[in-house]
C-alpha cells in the first residue's frame, strides 16, 4: 500500500500516485505511477532543472482530483536559499494534465535546461508490487516532432501513453526537454498533457463508443459542488461530527466509479487507490450505509450488478446462474485470463445482499419501477441461494472455490486465509459456511417476500419465501447457537461442526433479523462487552480466542464498516443505548484521522493506547469506511422509512450534543431530523 | 461455414424471445471475418423479442470478431469480456448492447459447476 507521504489524485479509475515532489519513480515497494484501466501508463515522471532533482517546500492535495507542489532545485538542506522556484499543478480529469511554472528570483538572468524523464512499464495493477521482469508483449516508443508515444503491444492488446507539451520541446525516447532563458523576476509556464489509449485492431479505442471525456477543472469543481449540494446538510454542536460527515461525503464523491458500459452513471468503488473498481460486496454495503444521504448510488449499483449477474457455469470465474459478481478488472492479466476478474464471482454474500439492497432502496425512495425492473434478477438471485450455494445440502449457503489457482479461499467479507477457524485455532475443511451470510439469506427472503406481495403481484411466491425464511431461522438457531457462550458460531464445517469462536459477525446477525428474540440480549451484551468492544469499535475476533491478535486483519482489528453494521443490528433489536456506545466509539476514532476512517485499526483497548492505532497496510479512503459515519448517524438518529414517511427516533449520548440533519431525501420529498444527546453512556458501560 | 455460429443465431430466432434481454432494445450487427470474407448477422432486439437476419444493415452497435473466435464464444470455449479486453473482439457503437448479448454465450463444455460435498447434496 502507498505510504502516507505519497500524494494521490484521481477521477474515477484514473489516478496518480506520486512522491511529495510530484515525481514518479515506481518500485515494487513504492508503487507510484499514473494509472488507468488497471494499467500503469507512467512508471517514471521525473522533473529536473539543469540536471538537478527538486526538493519540495510544500504540497497541497487541494481536491481529490488536483494537487499542487512547491519546489526548489537541489537536495533538501536545513537552509534553503533558492533563486528559483518551481510550481507543479496537476489535475486528473479523464487524462492527466500538469502545469509547470518556473520563477526566477535572482537579480541576474538565468539559462535553464528543464527536463522531464518519462517511461511507462504498462504494469497490470496485479503486478505493481512485484519486480516486473518478463512482460509477454513488446514495448515501443515513437518520438514525433510534437509528442512522445510510449506503447505496449501483446497480440491485439495495445496500450499507449501519449505525452505532449504546449511549449515546443525536444522529444527523445526517454522524455522531453526545453532550454529557456529567464530575465530577473521573469517566469515561464508550460502545460503538459498525458493521454492514455487502449487500442484494439485498426486503432479502435477499447473504451468503445464512449468518448473518453477530458474533464477540465471547472467541470470537476461543478460536479463536486452539485454532489455536496444534493446531499443532506449535517449541523452539530460539536464540530467533529459535521466535519466527519463532510469529509465522508467528499471521499464518497472521489470514490465514484463509472463502469465502461454505463455511460457516465456512477457507483461506489471499493477503495483508493488500488480498489477503484466495482466490487459486489463493497459497493452494496456502501450503498446500504449511504442510502439516506446519497440514494442515487444504490440505483446505479443495482442496475450494473444486475446487468452482469451470472448466467452460466464458469469454474475459472466461479460464475453460476444468478450469482452477483465479486470484482471486475480491466488490465492485461485479466484480458489474457491469467486472473479471473472479467468479472470474478467468488463471493457468497453479494447475491443475497443484492436483494436486501433493492428492498431497502425501495423503502427509502419509494421507487417501485426499479423493483419491477429487477424482478427477474431478484428471482434468479434467490434461486442461486437455494440451488447452487447449498453445497452440503443442509439448507445453508456454503463456499468452496473451483478456481484453485487464483480464486479466493474465503468468499465472505473476512476473506484472508486464516479468518475462519475452530476454537483451537485450526482451520476447518471446505465447504465452509459463515454465519453472517445465512443472516443475509434470511433477510433476502423476508424482503423479497414483501416485494413479491406488494409489487410483483405474486402472493404465492411471497408465502413460499416466508415459509423458507422461517424454516431457515429455526434451523439456524438450532445449528449455530453456542449455548455455553451465549452467541452464534462463526462458521460450520461440512459435517456441521461449529467454529465456536466469538466474532463481530454476530452483529450482522442482529442486522439481518435472524436472531431469536430471546437470544438477542446475550448477543447485544457481547457486542458491547470487554472481549469484543475495544472502546473504539467492535473487534473482528474477540480477545481471548486463540487466533486473536489486535492487528490481525480479520482476527482482532476493528473495521469501522463492520462496527457500523453491528450498531444498526443493535438498534434493530431495540438496543439503542448499546448502539450509541459503539457508534460513539467509531465517531471518536474518526477525530484522530481528520474524519477519514481507515479500512481498519488495531483492536487494542482504548484505555491502553488512548488513540486508535491504524492498521499497517490499510487502504484509505475506503468506501465502506467512508460510509460508516453515515450509517452511524442514521442509527443514532433512528431514521427509518415507514410506510412512505420518515420516522425519527434519536438516541444520542449526552456528550454528543445537538445534531441536525437537513433535507433527507426520500419518498417524502425532503425532511429534517433533529436530535439531542440524552443518553448517559457511563451508567450503561 | 461456422456451424455453431449458425446454430446460435438460428436458435435465438426460433425462440423469438430471450428473458435475459427483456430490458434491452436495439439493433446489434455481428461482422464475422475470415480473411477477406465477412459474414453478417443482424439481431433486432425489442425488449426481449428477437429477430435474426443476415444483412448488412444499419445498427446501434457492431461487434467485430474472427469467425474462428466467434465459433469459440458460442460454444463456451472463449470468454466474451476477456476477448473484448484483449482487443480480439471489438465494438463500435453502444457497448451496452454487447454486454447484454455477451450474457447469452454458454458455459464451457468443461465447466463442472458447484462442487457439491457429497452425492445427493443437491
UniProtKB/TrEMBL annotation, chain A:
Domain Putative glycogen debranching enzyme N-terminal per the UniProt entry, residue ranges: 10-189
Residues covered by the Mannosylglycerate hydrolase MGH1-like glycoside hydrolase domain: 329-592
Cited InterPro entries: 6-hairpin_glycosidase_sf, 6hp_glycosidase-like_sf, GDE_N_bis, MGH1-like_GH
Descriptive protein name: Amylo-alpha-1,6-glucosidase
UniProtKB/TrEMBL annotation, chain B:
Transmembrane segments: none
Record-linked Gene3D superfamilies: SCP2 sterol-binding domain
InterPro entries xref list: SCP2_sterol-bd_dom, SCP2_sterol-bd_dom_sf
Start and end residues of each SCP2 domain: 16-105
Domain of life, per lineage: Bacteria
Name recorded for this polypeptide: SCP2 domain-containing protein
Source organism per UniProt: Micromonospora qiuiae
Amino acid at each position: 500500500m502507498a505510504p502516507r507521504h505519497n500524494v494521490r489524485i484521481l477521477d474515477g479509475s484514473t489516478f496518480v500516485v506520486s512522491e511529495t515532489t510530484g515525481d514518479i519513480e515506481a518500485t515494487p515497494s513504492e508503487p507510484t505511477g499514473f494509472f488507468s484501466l488497471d494499467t500503469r501508463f507512467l512508471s517514471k515522471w521525473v522533473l529536473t532543472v539543469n540536471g538537478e532533482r527538486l526538493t519540495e517546500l510544500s504540497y497541497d492535495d487541494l481536491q481529490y482530483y488536483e494537487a499542487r507542489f512547491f519546489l526548489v532545485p537541489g537536495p533538501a538542506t536545513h537552509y534553503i536559499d533558492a533563486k528559483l522556484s518551481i510550481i507543479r499543478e496537476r489535475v486528473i480529469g479523464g487524462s492527466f494534465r500538469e502545469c509547470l511554472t518556473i520563477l526566477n528570483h535572482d537579480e541576474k538572468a538565468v539559462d535553464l535546461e528543464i527536463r522531464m524523464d518519462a517511461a511507462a512499464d504498462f504494469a497490470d495493477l496485479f503486478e505493481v508490487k512485484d519486480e516486473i521482469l518478463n512482460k509477454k508483449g513488446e514495448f515501443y516508443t515513437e518520438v514525433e516532432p510534437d509528442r512522445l508515444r510510449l506503447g505496449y503491444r501483446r497480440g491485439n492488446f495495445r496500450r499507449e501513453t501519449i505525452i505532449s507539451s504546449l511549449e515546443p520541446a525536444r522529444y527523445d525516447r526517454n522524455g522531453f526537454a526545453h532550454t529557456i532563458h529567464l530575465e530577473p523576476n521573469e517566469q515561464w509556464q508550460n502545460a503538459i498533457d498525458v493521454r492514455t489509449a487502449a487500442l484494439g485492431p485498426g486503432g479502435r479505442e477499447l473504451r468503445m463508443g464512449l468518448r473518453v471525456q477530458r474533464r477540465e477543472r471547472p467541470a470537476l469543481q461543478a460536479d463536486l459542488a452539485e454532489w455536496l449540494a444534493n446531499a443532506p446538510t449535517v449541523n452539530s454542536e460539536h464540530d467533529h461530527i459535521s466535519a466527519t460527515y463532510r469529509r465522508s461525503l467528499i471521499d464518497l464523491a472521489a470514490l465514484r466509479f463509472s463502469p465502461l458500459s454505463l455511460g457516465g452513471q456512477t457507483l461506489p468503488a471499493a477503495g483508493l487507490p488500488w480498489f477503484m473498481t466495482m466490487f459486489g460486496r463493497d459497493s452494496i454495503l456502501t450503498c446500504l450505509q449511504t442510502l439516506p444521504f446519497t440514494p442515487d448510488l444504490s440505483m446505479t449499483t443495482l442496475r450494473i450488478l444486475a446487468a452482469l449477474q451470472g448466467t452460466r457455469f464458469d469454474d475459472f470465474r466461479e460464475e453460476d446462474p444468478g450469482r452477483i459478481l465479486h470484482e471486475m478488472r480491466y488490465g492485461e492479466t485479466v484480458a489474457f485470463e491469467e486472473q479471473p476478474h472479467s468479472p470474478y464471482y467468488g463471493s457468497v454474500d453479494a447475491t443475497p445482499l443484492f436483494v436486501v439492497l433493492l428492498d431497502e432502496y425501495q423503502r427509502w425512495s419509494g421507487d417501485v419501477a426499479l423493483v419491477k425492473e429487477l424482478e427477474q434478477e431478484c428471482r434468479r438471485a434467490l434461486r442461486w441461494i437455494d440451488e447452487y450455494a447449498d453445497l452440503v445440502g443442509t439448507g445453508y449457503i456454503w463456499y468452496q472455490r473451483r478456481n484453485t489457482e487464483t480464486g479466493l479461499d474465503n468468499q465472505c467479507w473476512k476473506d484472508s486465509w486464516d479468518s475462519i477457524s475452530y476454537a483451537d485455532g485450526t482451520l476447518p475443511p471446505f465447504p465452509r459456511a459463515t454465519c453472517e451470510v445465512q443472516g443475509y439469506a434470511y433477510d433476502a427472503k423476508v424482503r423479497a417476500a414483501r416485494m413479491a406481495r406488494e409489487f410483483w403481484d405474486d402472493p404465492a411466491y411471497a408465502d413460499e419465501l416466508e415459509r423458507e425464511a422461517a424454516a431457515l431461522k429455526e434451523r439456524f438457531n438450532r445449528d449455530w447457537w453456542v449455548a455455553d457462550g451465549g452467541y452464534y458460531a462463526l462458521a460450520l464445517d461440512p459435517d456441521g461442526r461449529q467454529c465456536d469462536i466469538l466474532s463481530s459477525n454476530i452483529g450482522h446477525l442482529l442486522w439481518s433479523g435472524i436472531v431469536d428474540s430471546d437470544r438477542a440480549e446475550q448477543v447485544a451484551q457481547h457486542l458491547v462487552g470487554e472481549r469484543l468492544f475495544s472502546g473504539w469499535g467492535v473487534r473482528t475476533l474477540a480477545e481471548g480466542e486463540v487466533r486473536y491478535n489486535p492487528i490481525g486483519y480479520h482476527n482482532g482489528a476493528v473495521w469501522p464498516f463492520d462496527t457500523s453494521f453491528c450498531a444498526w443490528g443493535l438498534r434493530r433489536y431495540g438496543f439503542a443505548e448499546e448502539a450509541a456506545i459503539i457508534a460513539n466509539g467509531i465517531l471518536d476514532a474518526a477525530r484522530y484521522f481528520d474524519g477519514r476512517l481507515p479500512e481498519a485499526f488495531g483492536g487494542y483497548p482504548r484505555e491502553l493506547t488512548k488513540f486508535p492505532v491504524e492498521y499497517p497496510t490499510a487502504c484509505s479512503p475506503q468506501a465502506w469506511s467512508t460510509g460508516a459515519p453515515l450509517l452511524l448517524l442514521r442509527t443514532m438518529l433512528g431514521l427509518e422509512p415507514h410506510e412512505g414517511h420518515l420516522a425519527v427516533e434519536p438516541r444520542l449520548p449526552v456528550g454528543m450534543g445537538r445534531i441536525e440533519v437537513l433535507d433527507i431525501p426520500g419518498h417524502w420529498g425532503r425532511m429534517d431530523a433533529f436530535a439531542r444527546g440524552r443518553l448517559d453512556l457511563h451508567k450503561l458501560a | 461455414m461456422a456451424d455453431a455460429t449458425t446454430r446460435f443465431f438460428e436458435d435465438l430466432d426460433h425462440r423469438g424471445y430471450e428473458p435475459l434481454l427483456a430490458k434491452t432494445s436495439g439493433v446489434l450487427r455481428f461482422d464475422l471475418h475470415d480473411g477477406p470474407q465477412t459474414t453478417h448477422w443482424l439481431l433486432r432486439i425489442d425488449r426481449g423479442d428477437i429477430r435474426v437476419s443476415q444483412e448488412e444493415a444499419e445498427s446501434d452497435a457492431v461487434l467485430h470478431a474472427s469467425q474462428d473466435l466467434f465459433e469459440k464464444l458460442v460454444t463456451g470455449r472463449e470468454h466474451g469480456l476477456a476477448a473484448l479486453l484483449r482487443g480480439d473482439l471489438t465494438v463500435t457503437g453502444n457497448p451496452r448492447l454487447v454486454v447484454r448479448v455477451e450474457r447469452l454465450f454458454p458455459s464451457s463444455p468443461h465447466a463442472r459447476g458447484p462442487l457439491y460435498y457429497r452425492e445427493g447434496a443437491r
